[in-house]
Structure formats: structure tokens, C-alpha cells
Amino acid sequence: MYDAVIVGGGAVGCSVARWLSRYRLRICLAERGEDVCVGTSKANSAICHAGFDAPIGSAKARFNVAGSRMMEALSLELDFPYRRCGALVLCFDEAAIPRLEELKRRGERNGVEGLTVLDRASLRRQEPRVSPEAAAALYAPTSAIICPFGMTIALAENAAANGCEFRFDTEVRRIRREDDHFLLETNRGTLESRVVIAAAGVYGDALHNQLCETKLTIVPRRGEYCLLDRRDGELVQHTIFQLPSAMGKGVLVSPTVHGNLLVGPTAVDQEEKDCTATTAAGLRRVAETAARSVPSLPMRDVITSFAGLRAHLTGGDDDFIVGESADGFFEAVGIESPGLSSAPAIGRYLAELAAAAAAYDAGLRDILILERSGELGGILNQCIHAGFGLHTFHQELTGPEYAQRYIDAVRERSIPAWTDCMVLDISPEKVLTVTGRTVGLRQIRAQAVVLAMGCRERPRGALNIAGTRPAGIWSAGTAQRMVNMEGYLPGRQVVILGSGDIGLIMARRMTLEGAEVKAVAEVMPYSGGLKRNIVQCLDDFHIPLYLSTTVVEIHGQEHLTGVTLAQVDGQRLPIPGTERYIPCDTLLLSVGLLPENELTRQAGAALDAVTGGPVVDETLATSLPGVFACGNVLHVHDLVDFVSQEAAAAGRSAARCVLEGPGGGESIRLVGKNGVRYTVPQSLHRDGGPVTVRFRVGQPYRSAALCAYAGDTLLKRIPKRILTPGEMESFPIDPAAIPDGADTVTFVVEEAQAQ
To answer: Which residues are catalytic?
Structure first.
């Protein structure tokens, strides 16, 4: 009995095998061909697409952009050819330039970086040999070229080294569910598995239709190519497309990683699932269409031609189907372009889903969520404004809508959640003492614990403001809950102290509810919130923001009657003579958030002196074995999408800890200096994969650069036009780039001018 069987040995199937082989599971890959990469993956454009043309919010967009970002690091780790050459999408009619602009906006919504529309002159400077008829072009610098064979074989070799079994010349003819496992009937006997992952290309519908009520139809879409001699390999420097059509991205002209020039493909739908013959008409169309992009194309130098098949899914929304389609049956269906670019991300996603399912079927079922509130969703439930989910779901959602996506996922998996349940203590041995109205007082022994307690607001008492203690003084978050969830308006004349994001958002919210927000005061010489919130919440409503200003006195006995503001100096001390009285009945405090780490401290985990959160490595493991942390309990985030990313990473790490035991290896310390206040994580392992390090700067900077050093060696430099403490910075780093012997990586701000 296998824990998981993968059907299909193309780029996606081998990527799944590679990621799944990291877990302590018995897995097998069945391929009907004589080797990996003998189907769709062997005959394609060999492009790592940037992801600008995929529909916003689609699975194609999600996996394409994620896979593209993973590809370079993966090529370095597994040693297969990869070259970032950039792509140009040509427009031959000035009237169609708005379509390029729309394509650019779509790409930006998808998360593609660096997109630019080039005019005719700029295009010629980039690529002198393109047609003089080209009026403009969309430039995508993150597009790259790879070797499909090299990538797929490298993925398979890595999976095999990790213990994955490969069965070639093995065609899965029938698949059925029997009790708690699957029976896969092949031409070489029957395989039994708890979980099945299908990545069968043009045969994906045949497997799907045997297990799922909703039927699918895949039409093989044949694409013909011409490969030119190496002497033509530098004719163009970029991958050159024409504006895409309903049949795909059209005929391209592109260099290859081997120094040749590739031209194609056509797009012809056919019935036969194995026919890869070229045709005279098809090759003629390739030559004629490509010549429109590059008139000097020397088609006399063609050294070979070939055709490949794409698995085009009919009758739907022309999107990938990736996920669990039946209980224990996971699949990637309709993986046509940009399937090669998406393969690393699809593989990781399916592997994580399948590993959890296999572990569940094998007995790892004890997953429990403990929540002290009466409902799931946390602080998002009171954040009814839009702006959430653009990175995660590629949609603009409200806070409750965003939270509901994850609540639904928990309920679909029947994961128990205890609400109105307080955790009183966590021991170093991972014994949790909990109490609640429905559970009483009990102890729970865990193999792994994920800390996700979020943060709390800094209270008035911590500010040491002189005056009485009248009613009418609220934290901004409490006021937000009152207005958005309880239906109460705290007051009519409002002053807000602090320009954090919650304070800014509440300034807008109170205004919309009919209150007058007289002022927002900020003790620092800069705002602590996102720039967009300053514009949308203050500027748009003509609410004044007073910098280097604080509340020095509170007035009123039973109820607040007003506050006194004063300017402060460089040491944040009030400047005599600058006081002014503002009458008001409400004071909202948005003066900082504190990670909720009393339990963490009691458990004995090491805490960071700057963030107030636990010290973690790249797996988000704390100093306590088997205890992980994520989100605002680590450090205060500005985007919930980053919180979700950390939560997913912590969950995966906790699962690996249970399945494989705690990790180890050589550790490298990460520190922030010269403007970088801290780093999360605070360390990483040399044998781990690429890591995104997050931090905030200590003050605003213009024309600066974020740099990472290992000793005197510069690892990476990222120019920044503006840096502000209100926005968290993300710095990707690959441990493979850290020199041997280095035990510390330092992050700094360089060549910066303080405002």
C-alpha cells in the first residue's frame, strides 16, 4: 500500500513527486511512457512566462506568477538551465496600444513586476531586428527561458534520491475507490494507494471521469515548431510574442538556453491524443507569422521541426483545475500554457494537499484550533473595509470575506475548532492547559503547536498622559468593533492620537457615520500608516494630520470634553507654547500594537527584544522544539496576505515536524543594522531553500537601497525609491548564495538620505 501514487511523469507530475518526497511517505510515480518528460512537457516553447496575460484571479495567474518566482532558485538548487531574457509583446497597430496597456494592468494585478509599455523608439533600442511595423510593445523583464527536459529530469532525480519509486511503461487504465483507498489497474498489475495525484496531461479527463460526477473533456491542441541553427541564436535577445488571441499566445520567436532560435507554435485542435506529426501547412504558417515579428528570420537555417500537444480543457472558463476533485483524489487538469512555468508551484501545492490527506488517512487526524473569541476569523471580522486578498486571491475582499475563505476551508476538512476557549498555559513539553464554557478545564498534549495569537493594542496607561479618567477614550480597534459589529457610535466629535493604519481607517469610518474627526495627531515626524491609507482616509475627507504632535492633557470629569495638543521636539517632549485646546467627546488611541506573547513567554521561548515576538528560523520554528509561530504574534504586519503566507508556512512546518521529526543543520544568524530594525526570521539553515526575510526600517528614506552582507561580501542589493517604517519590506535571499564559513547575514540601508 502506497501513501500516494502520482499518475504522469511530466513537469507537473515530477514536481509533485519532488515536493511530496520531502515527507515521510511511501510514494510512487506511474508513467505510461518509457521515461519522464515524454508527453506534453517535451515539446513546448520552453518559456517561463511572466504571467501578465492570465485572467485576474484565475488559477493560471496564481500558479504562473508563483512558479515563475520559484524557477530561478529551483534551477540553482537542481542545476538545470535557466536564463532570464525578458519578453516583448508586439503591437502592430497604434489603435491596439490600449490593449497593451490593459495587458500591463492585468499583469500588475496578477503580481508581475517591472512591466513597461515601450514606444516604437524604445522598442528598437531593446530589439533592433523586430519589424518596423511594430508600433509598441509590452516589456516583461521577468520572463525567462529554460530547458524542459533538464527541469523535469532534475525534479525526478531529486524525488528518486528522496525515495520516490518510479514505474515506467505503466499505463493506468482504470481507477476506483475501495473503502479507504484506491485501486489503480495498470498494464503491469494493480497499485493500491491512500491518495492519488493525477497529472496525466491530455489523458487527465479519462482519470477524472472515472471518479468524479462532473465530467470533463480535454481536446489535444497541437502546436508545430521550427528550431533554427545556433548561428541564429543571437538574432533576437528576448522572447518575442504578438498580442495574444483566443487560441493562445500565438507564434513566438525566442532564443533557447542552448543557443538556438525557436519559432512557433501553431494551435490546431485534434481528436487524436498521440498524434504529434508536423504538416506542411502548419510549418508554412509558423514561418509566415513569425516573419511579421522578425522580417529577417532565416528560415533556411531550420535544423529540425517538431510538434507537441497541449491539454486544452473545453466547456469551462479556460482555466487550470488544480486541487482535490474527489475524496483523496487530487489532480492538475487542463495544464496547457503556462503549465511549464506553473509546474513548480502546482507541484508544491498538490504535494502539500496530498501529504496532509495521506497523513490524515494514515492516522494524523488530531488537528485542533483553539480560539478565545466566540467566532473564528479574529480581527478580520471587524475590518469591513475592502483591500484584502489582492496577493492571495487576486481579488479585493473585505476582512470578513477574506476570513470566510479560510473558515470554509477549515469546515470542508472537518477540522475541529473550539471557540470561547482560553489557553491558560503552554509547557515546554507542549502540554496546553485550556478552559472554556463548553470544554471545561482540561489539558491537551500536542506533538506540534502553532502560535497565532495576533497582537493587542497599547493602552492609554502606557502613554502617561496627564488629566482625568473620563468616559469617551477608546482604543481605535475597540471603536472599530463597536461601530462595525455592535452598531454603536462612540461619539460625534473625534480626535485620534496616532496615525497607524487602524487609526486612519477609523478616521474615515467615523466620518462616514456622521461624526466630525477634528484632527489626527502623530508624535513622530512621519505617519505610521500605509501611504494609501493616508490618502484614502485623511486626504480624501480633508481630515488634518498633525505630525510631531501629541496629546498632553485630557479634559473632563464624567465624560471627555476636550484634549490639549502640543508639538514635540526630537526627544518627543512637548514644546512649551505650542499647546492648543480642541473640544471633543471622543479620543481614539492608535498608538501601537503589541504581539500577544504572554503564553510564549511562560512556555520559555526566546523573544526578540525589538519585535516582542518569538525568535524563529526560516521554518518559523521557535526555540522550543515543535512550537512554531506566525502572523502578528511574530511581528506586526501591514498586509493580511503576508500573515496568511506565514500561517501556511508554519502549518507546513508543523506537519513536517510530526511526520519527519524536528529539523536541524547548520544555522546562519540574520541581523538588522544601519536602519533595519530587525529581521524575521532571525536565522536560517544553510541546507534550506530560498527565504523571504521581512523587516521594517527605523525612519523614512529616499533614494536608498536595501543590502544583505555576509561579512564584507555583498549578497544582494535592492534599490528603493522610498522606504517608510509604515510599510514592511520583503527581501528574498537564497542560502546557496551565502559563502561557506559565513555564520551571519546582515541587512542594512545604504546610500540613503534621511527625510
So the answer is: 49
Neighbour-count burial for 295-304, b at 16+ CB within 10 Å, e otherwise: eebebebbee
Whether 1-82+144-217+314-365 shares its CATH topology with 459-591 is answered: yes
C-alpha–C-alpha distance, residues 621 and 630, integer Å: 9
Task: Report which of 288, 259, 231, 208 is spatially closest to residue 8, judged by C-alpha positions.
Answer: 208
How many Å is the Cα radius of gyration of the chain?
29
- Backbone torsions φ then ψ of 210, nearest 5 degrees: -80, -20
Whether 140 contacts 87, CB under 8 Å: yes
**Distance, first Cα to last Cα, the chain:** 65
CA 304 to chain centre: 40
What CATH class is the domain 459-591?
Answer: alpha beta
Query: What's the pLDDT tens digit per position in 502-547?
Result: 899 999 999 999 999 999 999 999 888 888 889 999 999 999 999 9
Going by C-alpha positions, the residue among 619, 615, 618, 592 that lies closest to residue 603 is: 615
* Level-2 CATH architecture, domain 1-82+144-217+314-365: 3-Layer(bba) Sandwich (3.50)
User: What CA–CA distance (Å, rounded) separates 755 from 691?
Assistant: 31
| Phi/psi of residue 515, nearest 5 degrees | -80, 160
Q: Spelled out in words, what is the top-level CATH class assigned to the domain 366-457+618-663?
A: alpha beta
Question: What are the φ and ψ backbone dihedral angles of 477, each rounded to 5 degrees?
Answer: -65, -40
Q: What is the pLDDT of residues 28-48, one digit of tens each?
A: 999 999 999 999 999 999 999
Which secondary-structure segment (H or E) carries 283? helix 280-293
Whether residue 692 contacts residue 70, with contact meaning beta carbons closer than 8 Å, is answered with no
pLDDT at 245: 59
Element (H, E) at 64: helix 59-78
Q: How confident is the model at residue 690 (pLDDT cuts 50, 70, 90)?
A: confident
Residue at 118: amino acid letter: L
